[in-house]
Amino acid sequence: MHSIISLLMGMKFFRVKMHPIEEFVSYFTFLHELGQYFLEVKEKEIRHAMTCLFVEILLPVAAVVRHEVNIPALKNFVDLLYPPAFELANKKKHVLALFPMVTCLLCVGTKTFFLNNWPPFMQLCL
Predict the structure, then answer these.
(1) What is the per-residue pLDDT for 5?
(2) Cα–Cα 20 to 30 A to 21, which of 2, 44, 100, 126?
(3) What is the pLDDT of residue 1?
């Protein structure tokens, strides 16, 4: 388990290239595979390490993303991870790890996705 966490921590320097669009799509295809692993893994420590990794990767994307939110690879990634991440954020043992990830997923989602999912997340925060 510790070797998996070390590998995940080493990946925090992974950066998504926004251009050309083909590279952007391939990066999010890879992240989608990591997201599927996140959904399969049961160990809390590995899940928390993965949430930190996703935040490290998504935060720079959230700062500059514009029309790219409509690209299916990014949309599929957000659609895959948001519901389980939001559900885990409701649990006390996961709240500190999952709040930043849920926030990043909201920021890289489409405007409609953000507007539909922001109010329930805000309620959770209060």
Answers:
(1) 93
(2) 100
(3) 85
Look up the domain containing 86 and give its range. Answer: 2-125
Cα separation of 17 and 78, whole Å? 17
Q: How many residues does the chain have?
A: 126
Position of tokens 């050309």?
20
Angle (CA) 18-49-122 rounded to 5° is 75
**pLDDT of 59-69, one tens digit each?**
999 999 999 98
The whole-angstrom separation of Cα 126 and Cα 77 is 27
What is the token pair recorded at 63?
A: 């700062």
**DSSP codes of every residue in 7-57:** HHHHGGG-----SSHHHHHHHHHHHHHHHHHHHH---HHHHHHHHHHHHHH
Rounded to whole angstroms, the Cα distance separating 12 from 56 reads: 6
